[in-house]
Design a protein that fits this description.
The complex is a heterotrimer of chains A (about 300), B (about 350) and C (about 675). Chain A is mostly helical. In chain A, about 80% of the residues lie in helices and about 0% in strands. Chain A has two domains: about 130 residues, no CATH class; about 170 residues, MetI-like fold (Orthogonal Bundle), CATH 1.10.3720.10. Chain C is elongated, with a radius of gyration of 34 Å.
Chain lengths: ~300, ~350, ~675
């Protein structure tokens, strides 16, 4: 297990560095002058120049990246151009919204998707076809559109849930649940059938393998064969799919936060994009790339737990 | 006597993988094959027989030694050199279904080399293909069909035909009949034998099946853990082996004659009877390369002394300390065993308890 | 493969729909009833009407016209990112896969980085830097996804690189680009198109998402129309419908094409898969274009053979009239026809035959373990006095492991890779015996010792991948013994092993003291282990009797031919007396003798009617031949010839050498 974590560490750190570096370099091509953008068009040139020095914009690019990185490691991601506030504080206040949106979505997707996939693989027939059709629908229906349909149906036409807005968990657990319900359901609807289909094909692959037939020949019960042997063997590819799904859900969450006006990283990114707020953008990519490599670690650990060959 | 058509001198191939022990898969192997002759290379999995074939085909660069074609060093470094070699040396492999591109018609695959390597005119290509197909006993309407429409035996014939189109002098057959059913295998063996005569082809015939090798070869080399342990005339090696490993190999192969098989079984059990250390299942531990563990056999055999020694019934201290040299006590017949005397080992084997 | 796609109506409709959308968008300026920004304030936010066929949005903007114009943006953007995706991903993947080395390492690292970047976020970064530049954003989308495609192409190329035909082409000194173009690219193309279609769906959804967020282009887009709908959800929810419909239908079209292509690719591959799996038994040999397919005889029409030697009393197993069909292209095809035999307690019986003879399927049916579409259409079995209908697999489950055990061909794949040997053995012991607790652990070691594994403790702790093939097969035998069965079915148990290991495994099987049915293609193994032999050809038993008798005095032409094909009996320098022709695939079997087409003794009568098993005249046994006397004469002639050849057989301190086949008692 130590080796798995070690191997992950060796790839994860460079990945995070490269992602941040790439974003930083891209951001340096931004047209216009950030100092001018902060101070406004009417600010005197001396003042702009002073801010440029203060922001380190007169330094060469590698130096600026190094400075940013050192500061970032100490938890300082600079100041937002839009709000002038600390980027780190801004992100910290929002990351929980995004994570809980994706997290709850993923839990529902995994529970429902894997169960559905497993059952449809074993029972086959109409359930299999339902999964096929539903996974195509899940692929084809954009989450933001589905979210709007759900709002139109369950917030406007039949007002069960609030259409938009967010209530903090600390303020009112009930309100929080109500405000998160539609976004989470929307997110879950877009991914569940896809995972079910993947699960079904993994399970069916396993069911066709020789060892399953031999377990049957050795008098092991069907229930045990499926719940223990097939599930464990099919688990590894499914876990990989869930990891990829997580990354996909990040994109979905960006749009859904806008649809449902949730104060998460996604809506922040969209706002920063509109305002060319580079420090915020840099902060978001850094946080998300760390989240993604952490998810990858979870995937690799589960993979190793499931498969003794990887562990060796 | 002129130089042999194809020769290997003191070949060694070492597999180095980062973080793992380096393994000498082929160790000091020398071979020579004359025009129109067939050399059979016998060994079990991990013996290095396929590696030797790959070296002779230029697929693997040996770490030591060289390959000679007509006495000249053979080289496959540049594409031009490979193209030249390909006109003289061709290969037939084990898996008939993998040897033809499944998405291309047979005719497209067969015309590839004459067109892009030999740069022949379409009419000349058609002529050659027709001749090759006739030689392997297939009709020319196969050219418009896809590999999936043929059986394993038919595909193996087509693979042979594709090699023949080039009109080579030397062919490496790596387990070329091993995956075929008995009745089809017999047909392909006959085909290879008749081609050797009609086209004057020389073969390096690699197989794990001594019976098949014996039928096709003039000479047999027996390989164990990367080294040749015995080499000599085919019928002599197959019927009266001198090296204890060759004996074990011959005795282990079951034959379809009840009395003979009973006798062989008894002889084998005597030869492999558990020694004082009570080792059973040695073939598993030492001889078998596991499906998952692809380390060549050589990595689990002693690096000094005789590599067969740990499994040998006749082992003496000298076997563990000194590597036996492949030496000739009979004309054209070489054995690498410290106890290969003129008298031979046979009585010794027969009487041991 | 593309051709196969056109046989799928769903895919054709999808392609047509994409084509229609493209044409409509291109023609938008000509056919759109209004301009994209034409206002009609009198009819703002209305449902479908004569003036506005799909309704109107804010300021009375015509929904239909805006959809037509908006399609241009989405389609062009999708085309851009798909092109970038394919143009970067395919060459990079080919390079990495075919060349390997440094290029491979760099591309792998890049793909790891790309995996760690959520695409939507990166696109927003690009748009923050280049506001409104949707082209740049879509290029970024393609570029960011390209490493994933490169990885797919890379794996496909690496697999191909190892293929013999690529190796042969390289050996022939063909130029790399030629090999890539002629041999590699056509093979990976299917996979590439599937991935491009799936990526197109992602690109479309992302592009419309940008429009929805209002960070993309300033032109009218489908996404922007969804955003417009979102602001008017309360008063005109209809607006969600047209924009949603075009987006979903376009994505769906690409998704369906991807699915269709994947299926088409899989079908193309499965032809090869099946043919590769030949000889693995339990699957009917693939029929090669049944150009003159004979009507498949329904199993019911076959008259049963007369009970061969009368009901053997005291038989452990008596199989009667087993007929098995597999479904090929929706039609049942008979692969095993009316097979009957008996096994006495403790008797070693061998079934010998080539691939397609039905020998493996026959033993699988005894346990109700037919693969795929296999079905027992007729056949009963009496086991230890108890009758079974072999088509009722449920009842057969009770026999598994406790009465009849199975050992399969490939020892490694017969074990679950995820569990230790101890766990798997204990599981089978607990499932089939009353043993519990520490007794189970002791039994595990006892079984491992019974199959003569040198280090039972160590083996018990191991996972399957840590064992050699021979050790794995010993474990498989131990597993078969765990239920203390009376009969072991060993289906080609040593085919995957070296001969020296094979000999040791046969020693183990011989020492078990159980009845065994050995399925094999190797005459030597049959002789080595079995007393009774059954020769199968094309789904039928063609000869039965004692092994000694069958190899010395064969009474069926196929048995004679198959024995003579063995190089062991060959005369040096003489061609092997091979059987001409090929085994007919199931579904093409003739009404009369299945071997007639390849038989040297064939007469017209052989093809007229079904040939029944008859008693061998001068020895105990059965043969399915009308001319057994002629076969006997032929076999005697050959025995004499073979005897001469074998005169010079082994001399390695082995007794009994030189006894020719004909001189056996």
């Amino acid at each position: 297990m130590g080796r798995v974590i070690g191997r992950w560490f060796i790839t994860a750190v460079p990945v995070v560095l490269v992602v941040s570096m790439l974003t930083f370099i891209l951001a340096s091509f931004v047209p216009g002058d950030p100092a001018r953008a902060i101070l406004g068009a009417s600010a005197p040139p001396e003042q702009v120049e002073a801010l440029r020095q203060q922001l380190g914009l007169d330094q060469p690019l590698p130096q600026r990246y190094w400075d940013w990185l050192v500061a970032a490691l100490q938890g300082d991601l600079g100041r937002s151009i839009q709000t002038r506030g600390s980027v780190a504080t801004e992100l910290a206040g929002r990351v929980d919204v995004t994570i809980s949106l994706i997290g709850f979505g993923l839990i529902i997707i995994t529970l429902v998707g894997v169960t559905l996939g497993l059952v449809s693989a074993i029972k086959g027939g109409w359930l299999g076809r339902v999964v096929d059709v539903a996974s195509l629908a899940g692929l084809a229906v954009p989450g933001f559109w589905l979210g709007l349909v759900l709002v139109a149906a369950f917030a406007v036409a039949i007002p069960i849930f609030p259409a938009t807005g967010f209530v903090r968990l600390s303020d009112s657990p009930g309100g929080w649940a109500a405000s998160m319900a539609l976004p989470v359901i929307t997110l879950a609807l877009t991914g569940t059938a896809g995972l079910a289909k993947q699960t079904r094909s993994s399970v069916m692959d396993e069911l066709g393998k020789d060892y399953v037939r031999m377990l049957r020949a050795r008098g092991v019960s069907q229930r045990r064969i499926i719940l223990l042997h097939v599930c464990r063997n099919a688990g590894a590819p499914i876990v990989t799919v869930i990891g990829l799904l997580f990354i996909g859900l990040v994109g979905g969450a960006v749009l859904l936060e806008t649809v449902f006006v949730l104060p998460g990283l996604g809506s922040l990114t969209v706002a920063a994009t509109r305002a060319h707020d580079i420090p915020v953008i840099l902060g978001v990519t850094l946080i998300l790339s760390i989240v993604v490599v952490t998810v990858n670690l979870a995937v690799e650990i589960s993979y190793a737990l499931l498969n003794p060959k990887v562990r060796a | 006597m002129s130089a042999p058509l194809m020769a290997a001198e003191d070949l060694a191939v070492v597999y180095r993988r980062p973080g793992q022990r380096t393994v000498t898969a082929v160790d000091g192997v020398s071979l020579a094959i004359n025009r129109g002759q067939t050399l059979g290379l016998v060994g079990e999995s991990g013996s290095g027989k396929t590696t030797i074939g790959s070296v002779m085909l230029g697929l693997i660069q040996p770490d030591q030694g060289r390959v000679l074609l007509d006495g000249e060093p053979a080289a496959w470094r540049s594409r031009a050199q490979r193209a030249v070699m390909a006109r003289r040396i061709q290969a037939v492999f084990q898996d008939p279904f993998g040897s033809m591109n499944p998405v291309r018609k047979i005719g497209q695959t067969m015309s590839e080399v004459p067109r892009y390597n030999l740069h022949l005119k379409p009419s000349a290509i058609a002529e050659r293909i027709e001749r090759a197909l006739a030689d392997v006993g297939m009709a020319s309407d196969v050219l418009d069909r896809y590999p999936a429409q043929f059986s394993g035996g038919q595909l193996q014939r087509l693979a042979i035909a594709r090699a023949l189109v080039v009109e080579p002098e030397f062919m490496v057959c790596d387990e070329a009949v091993s995956s075929l059913d008995l009745s089809v295998q017999a047909q392909v063996i006959n085909l290879l034998a008749s081609l050797a005569v009609s086209r004057g082809l020389a073969y390096l015939f690699i197989s794990h099946d001594l019976t098949v090798v014996r039928h096709l070869s003039h000479e047999i080399a027996v390989l164990y853990a990367g080294q040749i342990v015995e080499q000599g005339p085919a019928s002599a090696v197959a019927t009266n082996p001198r090296h204890p490993y060759t004996k074990a190999l011959v005795l282990a192969a079951p034959v379809p004659q009840p009395a003979e098989q009973r006798a062989r079984r008894e002889a084998r059990l005597r030869l492999a009877a558990p020694s004082a250390r009570g080792q059973t299942g040695l073939a598993d531990q030492m001889g078998q390369v596991s499906l998952a563990d692809s380390r060549p056999l050589a990595s689990r055999t002693p690096s000094s002394g005789c590599r067969w020694a740990p499994r040998c019934r006749l082992v003496r201290p000298v076997c563990r300390s000194e590597r036996p040299v492949l030496s000739s006590r009979r004309p054209g017949w070489k054995v690498a065993c410290h106890f290969d005397t003129e008298a031979g080992l046979a009585p010794d084997l027969g009487e041991s308890t | 493969m593309i051709r196969r796609l056109f046989h799928k109506p769903v895919a054709v409709v999808s392609l047509a729909w994409i084509a229609i959308l493209i044409i409509l968008s291109v023609l938008a300026p000509v056919i759109a009833p209004y301009g994209p920004q034409d206002q009609d304030l009198a009819h703002a936010l209305e449902g479908p009407s004569r003036a506005h066929l799909l309704g109107s949005g804010v300021l009375g903007l015509d929904v239909l016209s805006r959809l037509l114009y908006g399609g241009r943006v989405t389609l062009v953007s999708t085309a851009i990112s798909v092109s970038v995706y394919a143009l970067l991903g395919v060459p990079a993947g080919l390079l990495a896969g075919y060349r390997g080395g440094l290029a491979d390492k760099i591309i792998l690292r890049l793909s790891e980085v790309a995996y760690a970047i959520p695409g939507t976020i990166m696109v927003l970064v690009v748009l923050a830097i280049r506001p409104g530049d949707e082209t740049a954003a879509m290029i970024a989308v393609g570029a960011l996804a390209a490493p994933a495609l490169a990885r797919v192409v890379r794996s496909a190329t690496i697999a191909l690189r190892e293929e013999l035909y690529i190796r042969a082409a390289r050996l022939a000194g063909l130029r790399d680009w030629l090999i890539l173009r002629r041999n590699v690219l056509p093979s990976v193309m299917g996979t590439v198109i599937v991935h491009v279609a799936i990526f197109a769906t992602t690109a479309i959804i992302l592009e419309t998402g940008l429009g929805f967020l209002g960070v993309g282009t300033r032109q009218v887009t489908w996404g922007e129309m969804v955003a417009e709908a979102s602001h008017n959800l309360g008063n005109q929810p209809w607006l969600l419908v047209p924009s949603g419909f075009v987006i979903i239908s376009l994505v769906l079209a690409f998704g369906l094409i991807g699915d269709g292509l994947r299926d088409a690719t899989a079908e193309g591959y499965s032809i090869r898969q099946t043919s590769r799996a030949r000889g693995r038994g339990n699957k009917p040999a693939r029929s090669a274009k049944p150009d003159r397919a004979l009507p498949n005889k329904a199993a019911a029409n076959i008259p049963p053979d007369p009970p061969p030697t009368g009901p053997e009393t005291g038989a452990l197993l008596a199989l009667n009239g087993l007929t098995i069909t597999f479904e090929t292209n929706g039609k049942p095809v008979t692969v095993v026809e009316n097979v009957s035999f008996t096994v006495a307690p403790g008797q070693m019986v061998g079934i010998v035959g080539e691939s397609g003879s039905g020998k493996s399927v026959t033993v699988a049916a005894l346990l109700g373990l037919l693969r795929g579409t296999g079905q027992v259409s007729a056949g009963t079995m009496t086991f230890a006095g108890q009758p079974f209908d072999l088509s009722q697999t449920k009842a057969l489950a009770a026999l598994r492991a406790r009465r009849i055990a199975l050992i399969s061909q490939d020892p490694m794949s017969s074990l679950d890779p995820c569990f230790t040997i101890r766990y798997q053995l204990a599981e089978v012991i607990k499932a089939n015996t009353p043993l519990r607790g520490t007794a189970v652990g002791e039994r595990v070691l006892e079984l491992l010792r019974a199959v003569r594994l040198p280090e039972p403790e160590l083996t018990a702790r191991s996972y399957p991948h840590q064992l050699s093939g021979g050790m794995a097969q010993r474990v498989a035998i131990a597993l078969a013994l765990a239920g203390e069965p009376d009969l072991i079915l060993a289906d080609e148990p040593t085919t995957a092993l070296d001969v020296t290991v094979q000999a040791e495994i046969m020693d183990v099987l011989r020492s078990l003291g159980k009845a065994i049915i050995l399925v094999t293609h190797d005459w030597g193994l049959l002789v080595d282990l079995c007393e009774k032999g059954i020769v199968m050809y094309s789904g039928q038993v063609v000869e039965e009797g004692s092994v000694e008798r069958i190899v010395a005095q064969p009474r069926h032409p196929y048995t004679v031919g198959l024995l003579r094909s063995n190089p062991y009996f060959a005369t040096a320098g003489q061609p092997l007396p091979a059987i001409p022709g090929v085994v007919l695939p199931p579904g093409r079997w003739p009404v009369g003798c299945h071997f007639a087409e390849r038989c040297s003794l064939v007469r017209p009568v052989c093809s007229e009617a079904r040939v029944a098993l008859t008693v061998v005249r001068d020895r105990p046994g059965l043969t399915r031949c009308l001319f057994q006397d002629q076969v006997a004469a032929q076999a005697a002639d050959q025995a004499a010839a073979m005897g001469a050849a074998l005169g010079a057989a082994l001399e390695i301190g082995v007794q009994g050498t030189g006894q020719a086949a004909g001189s056996q008692p």
